[in-house]
Design goal:
Elements (H helix, E strand, L loop, with lengths): L12 H10 L3 E6 L2 E6 L14 E2 L2 E2 L1 H13 L4 E4 L12 H11 L3 E5 L18 E7 L3 E8 L4 E5 L7 E8 L10 H4 L9 E4 L10 H10 L4 E5 L15 E4 L1 H12 L5 E10 L8 E2 L19 E4 L3 E4 L7 E3 L2 E3 L3 E4 L2 H18 L5 H10 L21 H4 L6 H4 L4 E2 L4 H9 L5 H8 L20 E5 L9 E12 L5 E8 L4 E6 L2 E4 L5 E11 L6 E9 L5 E10 H5 L4
Parallel strand pairs: 5-6, 6-7, 7-16, 10-11, 11-12, 12-13, 22-29
Antiparallel strand pairs: 1-2, 3-4, 7-15, 8-9, 8-14, 10-14, 17-20, 18-19, 21-23, 23-27, 24-26, 24-28, 25-27, 28-29
Family: Belongs to the peptidase S8 family.
Pfam families: fn3_6, Peptidase_S8
Keywords: Autocatalytic cleavage, Glycoprotein, Hydrolase, Protease, Serine protease, Signal, Zymogen
Length: 569
């Protein structure tokens, strides 16, 4: 089949990502009445260069490499790519290969972690020279207000894409009908068009959930639905094809009790509401965001950072259908989309601003500044959690949620030169041909005189060899790191250690004294760990500046290969 090589965006994904990274100010925009206001990208003063490598007929790795090579040749400062491969060697990964070439030319690549979480080892774009970005949820709710006939108001979740008002319609709850699993069964109700139905919570155990329920309610032509659900996936989906709201189980009990104890229960629903109200501590890690480490190269803890990735408002081509109401397709200039695809351009935009403020910073320095200043605590000053309220691991959220203001002035940074990455590749026992995919020549292949997998990286990961016979030897692993002072003058930092469970962490020296800007100081970190099968312990070290507010934090992960690779997604 001959490919259509037109450069226009035919599905909206690329336009949306570019708009997030560097879209200009746009007043009075919304997603069908939700998130109304002035929109802009992260770096609205940056210029956008777009390179298309994927077409309706598919994509070729050669096109991807050619696109990224051309971007570097054209002089771009940052590359954002929301695309990825999984479970292939580094030397076969087109993004890894092209990103290595970009890094060698001083260009940072920000890439999406993938949307196959929450299983471990599902992450893509985990190469050491890539900024790998996870997706988090921030403090914003799109709502419809449910008002019962007794006056009780409940703020439900809704993205119904039209101006609508459901006033004082009868509400029913029937244990059989309210499973909402069959439009044939629902159609037996005598007057669905003038009735609101309550749909019970379903955990997908029967192969259906909210999407199936709203489909059947639509087919049965009920006026509206009240959907009881606590499935996190519901709250990242902009496809709300029928009048209705989603409420949680606690609120669902209130509504059901009202209906059961009322002679003529009624309800009113209003739509197109947006709230910034902090109903739960934020940000939190989204369940679908792929977890690390990378199976292509596990020696670096990935992802690196977390950025907003749920229901992000950004521009899309106006000629592509966005959502639908029953069989009516609707278009818009701005759309809410979710995924790590939306997180990566957030990070790229921040990286672009850092490059603008510090033109001399290398890709490694920019990544370090973002990682060591990231927030690992939420708005309640507790550890960031996943969407099921479990504490998030660095293998899910990286160093934490990116903080652009703190990243502008990180104090200390972990830099790595192109030669450092060459030394890392030299440590991987690649063949000459595999080596050439990165170095693009054999010049350094016979001169790998200093191979080293201990890259000067802002995080630490140690693998514990679990013994099936029940033997638990002590793990001891040593890391060497070098910090560069990018503050305005001299500074003194002292280390604070938070050791993972069942481990001891030693750092030497514990105080680093910098007399001048750009001065370097090195330290050694040793992990000693007596583990068991229930591994996956985490901790951190933080270099805290004396008499000032700067802190430089690095996460630590200790885990087993059995624990990580035993579960497929």
């Amino acid at each position: 089949m001959e490919r259509n090589l037109q450069s226009r965006d035919t599905n909206g994904h690329g336009t949306h990502c570019a708009s997030i990274a560097a879209g200009n100010f746009a007043k009075g925009v919304s997603h069908f009445g939700y998130a109304q206001g002035t929109a802009r990208g992260v770096a609205p003063r940056a210029r956008i260069a777009v390179y298309k490598f994927s077409f309706r007929e598919g994509s070729l790795t050669s096109d991807l490499i050619a696109a990224m090579d051309q971007a570097v040749a054209d002089g771009v400062d940052m590359i954002s790519i929301s695309f990825g491969y999984r479970f292939i060697p580094l030397y076969e990964d087109a993004i890894s290969i092209a990103s290595f070439g970009a890094m060698m030319k001083g260009v940072l690549v920000s890439a999406s972690a993938g949307n196959r979480g929450p299983s471990w080892g599902t992450l893509g774009n985990g190469s050491p020279w890539i900024l790998c970005v996870a997706a988090g949820f921030t403090d914003r709710t799109f709502a419809g207000t449910l008002t019962l006939g007794n006056g009780l108001k409940i703020k439900g979740w809704s993205l119904f894409p039209a101006r609508a008002f459901v006033r004082d319609f009868p509400v029913i709850y029937n244990k059989t009908l309210s499973n909402c699993s069959s439009d044939e069964l629902l159609s037996q109700f005598p007057d669905p068009q003038n009735t609101i139905i309550i749909c019970d919570y379903n955990k997908l155990e029967d192969g259906f959930g909210f999407d199936s329920q709203i489909f059947h309610v639509t087919r049965a032509r009920f006026k509206a639905g009240i959907f009881i659900s606590e499935d996190p996936a519901v709250f990242r989906d902009a496809s709300f094809t029928h009048l209705g709201v989603v409420i949680d189980k606690k609120e669902g009990k209130q509504v059901i009790n009202y209906v059961k104890n009322s002679v003529d229960p009624t309800a009113t629903i209003t739509f197109q509401e947006t709230y910034l109200d902090g109903e739960r501590p934020n940000p939190f890690l989204l369940g679908y965001s792929s977890r690390g480490p990378s199976r292509s190269y596990a020696g670096i803890a990935k992802p690196d950072i977390m950025a907003p990735g749920a229901l992000i408002l950004a521009a899309v081509p106006p000629n592509i259908p966005s959502v639908s109401i029953e069989n009516l397709q609707l278009t818009t200039d701005y759309e809410l989309k979710s995924g790590t695809s939306m997180a990566a351009p957030h990070a790229a935009g921040i990286a672009a601003m850092l490059k603008g403020a510090h033109p001399d910073w290398s890709p490694s320095v920019i990544r370090s500044a973002m990682m060591t200043t990231a927030n690992h605590l939420n708005s309640a000053q507790n550890p960031i959690t996943e969407d099921d309220n479990m504490v998030a691991s660095p293998l899910g959220m990286g160093s934490g949620h990116v903080d652009p203001n703190r990243a502008l002035d990180p104090g200390l940074v972990y830099d790595a030169t192109p030669q450092d990455y060459i030394n890392l590749i030299c440590s991987l026992n690649f063949t000459e041909e595999q080596f050439k995919t990165f170095a693009r020549s054999s010049a350094n292949y016979d001169n790998c005189s200093n191979p080293s997998a201990d890259l000067n990286y802002p995080s630490f990961i140690a693998f514990y060899s679990y013994s099936q016979e029940g033997n638990y030897p002590w793990l001891e692993q040593k890391f060497r790191r070098t910090l560069t002072n990018v503050g305005k003058g001299g500074a003194t930092y002292r280390v604070k250690i938070e050791s993972p469970k069942n481990s001891t962490i030693s750092v030497s020296p514990q105080t680093l004294v910098f007399k001048n800007k750009n001065e370097k100081q090195s330290y050694t970190l040793i992990i000693r760990y007596r583990g068991d099968f229930n591994s996956g312990q985490t901790g951190s070290i933080t270099w805290i500046e004396k008499n000032r507010n700067r802190s430089v934090r690095s996460p630590i992960v200790i885990t087993t290969t059995v624990d990580l690779w035993g579960a497929e997604d």
